[in-house]
Amino acid sequence: MMMKALAFKVPQAATESFRLQEDDVPHFYDRLHHHPELQLTLILSGHGTQLVGDSIQAFQAGDLLLIGAHLPHVFRNAEVFYHEASPLRAKAISVFFSPQSFGEGFLDLPEALALRELLRQAGRGIRIKGELRQRLVPQLHSLAEYRGFRRLLSLLSMLHDIASAPESLELLSSIRFEGSIELAAEQDLKAVLQYVMDHYHRAITLSEVAAVANRSVSAFCRYFKLHTRKTFVRFLNEVRVGAACRLLGEQGMHISEISYAVGFQNLSNFNRQFRGIKGMTPTEYLRVIKGE
Fold first, then answer.
1. Burial of 16 per CB tally in 10 Å (0-12, 13-18, 19+)
2. pTM of the full predicted structure?
3. 137: helix, strand or coil
4. Rounded CA separation 19/274 (Å)
5. Burial class (CB in 10 A: 0-12, 13-18, 19+), 180
6. What is the b/e burial string over 202-220, where b = at least 16 CB atoms within 10 angstroms of the residue's CB?
7. What is the per-residue pLDDT across 30-47, written as a single tens digit (0 to 9) for each?
8. I need a labelling partner for 219 at 20 to 30 A (CA). Which of 26, 129, 189, 262 fits?
9. How do residues 241-261 score in pLDDT, each as one tens digit?
10. What is the distance between the alpha carbons of residues 265 and 272, in angstroms, rounded to a whole number?
11. Of the candidates 199, 191, 201, 186, which has an alpha carbon nearest to the alpha carbon of residue 247?
12. What phi, psi does 145 have (nearest 5°)?
């Protein structure tokens, strides 16, 4: 049976319009999932690979992301977090909210135009960077200390700051999921994303992934290109290169070992694809992350 992105139910108390959640776990929830709430998440501790829509990147402590409603995502910790005797912990602060959290019709106000556009862009997932991220981190920590209207006002203030600094925002996924794809086609695409996350480390044929999407090979290639604006082979290579970047960051493995570990059949193709996606060779990337 092929895995689809799970519809996740976020617990909600009757006395609050949005949920603040603090996680301190051996590893983050590691199945591709989605929920109707938007999610503002600060990674406090832990590292691994994140998939947001059709984007795959490494994540680490300090990352701050805004994930839109119904956008499939997963934060999959590195393998060391799954070792039984591992002392490592995955920690995060997340705020789950919806447009209705601010009251019916609030986003229709002229003053809420920038916020409305931000929530629309969040349908592709957003990484918040630079000075804005540094400014928001202590505000997110403080959110747990507030109650009632002050907590709501603080969240609105943070979202206003994010909406007012587009230069500090990196859009992640090439596609939006909410309202952008018919339901059946959306579920098929989510199934493909999950399948790639589970099997990228080995050879994947077009025929097997087309079967996941319930299409012929030619129909699947057209369908995937239509909805992601990239070929499946390009996407698969991006997934593998993203996983390679995480392994390079962890160190302890030779580049040739990493190449095979993430699914490339030979080192020369790995180097070529890595350069095409990252604009540098794996060796150059390793120097950058070491600060050399």
1. middle
2. 0.74
3. helix
4. 39
5. middle
6. eebebeebbebbebeeeeb
7. 888 889 999 999 999 999
8. 262
9. 988 887 887 767 899 999 999
10. 12
11. 201
12. -85, -15
